[in-house]
Amino acid sequence: MRITWLTGLVLASCAATAAAHHSFSMFDMKKDVTVQGTVTDFRWTNPHAWMHIDVADAKGGATNWAIEMTSPNNLVSVGWRRSALKAGDKVTVTYHPLVNGKAGGSLVRVVLPDGKTLENK
Amino acid sequence: MKYWVAPLGVLAAVCLAAPGGAQQSAAQAADVMPQNVVPDKIWPASAPQVDFAALQKLPDWRGLWSPMLSANAKPEIPQLKGKYKTHYDEIQALIKSGDPEAQLKVERRSSACEPPGVPGIMTQPYNLEFLFTPGRVTVIQEAYMQVRRIFTDGRPLPEDPDPTFNGSSIGHWEGDTLVVTTIGLREGGTMGRWGITHSSKVKLTERIRLDPTNKDVLLIDNTFEDPEALVAPWHSSYQFKRERGFDQIEFVCAENDRNPINADGEVEFIGVGD
């Protein structure tokens, strides 16, 4: 319940059988991207929670990004609730981007409208 | 209105005639479910007579147990043979190659909500709960809400079990150590990382006990024997930390699985609009 994704992955590589739900090789785990955006959806579900955020793109519009988190079972132990995010929230999101360049990533942390930070652990 | 009543009535009749759903005809003819055959013997865990007092003598394993992955010793190099050695060597070469896709290739099939089976069920990055009832120890893994049943009522291992993810387990207490023997695991299942797989003939012996120097640490020592995959027994060990401040949370993997495995064996990411 309190083992982070990344820690689990790194430790698993040298220790016991401990895969989380899936491999993270689809993400560039060495790269952090920080953007500001507006939450359009927050899914408090297993095996992973997800947020969708509109982020301004170069064309003057917005792209809807899908940011994946670990599970509610893990997130509750670092302060998350199902009510942590809601559509319309202006947030600052840091994530590991998808390697394939699509509009998605693995969350590192989110700064909420009230300035509080929630980590993806 | 009558137009709709007729087909609904037909539908209801069909449903009533098929209370068990598919495959009901043979059972229906005999008026019993097929598995309700008279057992040869009723073992103590299910017997009418029960000795709850015996539970008082068992060690206190209450609370939840989170794996301490960093505390686990580096496992032995396995002495594999045949196709199991070939597979292990391929995975090890992949890891050493520096191939950025190595992790993906190594972890194929680790998504799709498929349970890891024994022994992986014990070291998911979630917690374990142990329940003691007369003649039985039940292990509940928070991830995917998986359950292991370990019968401690003196029954033997089944002679020809259907291979399953968690196999068939019996156990007995040696003092405060629960010694568990498991067989009936699926061909090609994982004994350990990376690429250490077993045949359906594998036998696992687990010795589970509290750390004598710290009652909030649980220790498991594994010994794998496999006449088809191993030249010599392979050992690994796990440690767990007791957590008392929370309870297990429901975990339904099918709720929103957006990381399926595609036809090429790769993990997908279903983004917005995909």
Structural commentary:
The complex is a heterodimer of chains A (121) and B (274). Chain A has 121 residues and is mostly beta strands. Chain A is built from 2 helices and 6 strands, in the order H-E-E-E-H-E-E-E. In chain B, strands 1-11-10-9-6-5-4-3-2 form a 9-stranded mixed sheet, with no helix packed on it. By secondary structure, chain B is α+β, with helices and mostly antiparallel strands. Chain B has a single domain (63-255), classed as Beta Barrel (Lipocalin). Chains A and B meet through helix 1, strand 3 and helix 2 of A and strand 1, helix 4 and strand 11 of B.
Layout of helices and strands, plus pairs?
The complex is a heterodimer of chains A (about 120) and B (about 270).
Chain A: H1 5-12, E1 33-43, E2 50-56, E3 62-68, H2 72-75, E4 90-97, E5 104-111, E6 117-119
Parallel strand pairs in A: 3-5
Antiparallel strand pairs in A: 1-2, 1-4, 2-3, 4-5, 5-6
Chain B: H1 2-17, H2 25-30, E1 64-67, H3 82-96, H4 102-106, E2 128-133, E3 136-141, E4 146-151, E5 168-174, E6 177-183, E7 190-192, E8 196-197, E9 203-211, E10 214-225, E11 234-243
Strand content of chain A: 35-45%
Largest sheet report of chain B: 9 strands, mixed
What's the architecture of chain A, going by CATH?
Beta Barrel
In spatial order, strands of the major sheet of chain A run 1-2-3-5-4
Strand order of the largest sheet of chain B: 1-11-10-9-6-5-4-3-2
* Structural class estimated from helices and strands of chain A: mainly beta
Radius of gyration of chain B: 23 Å
- Give the averaged pLDDT of chain A, no decimals: 85
Write down the overall mean pLDDT of chain B. Answer: 85
**Largest sheet data of chain A:** 5 strands, mixed, barrel
Using only C-alpha atoms, the radius of gyration of chain A works out to: 14 Å
Separation of termini of chain B?
41 Å
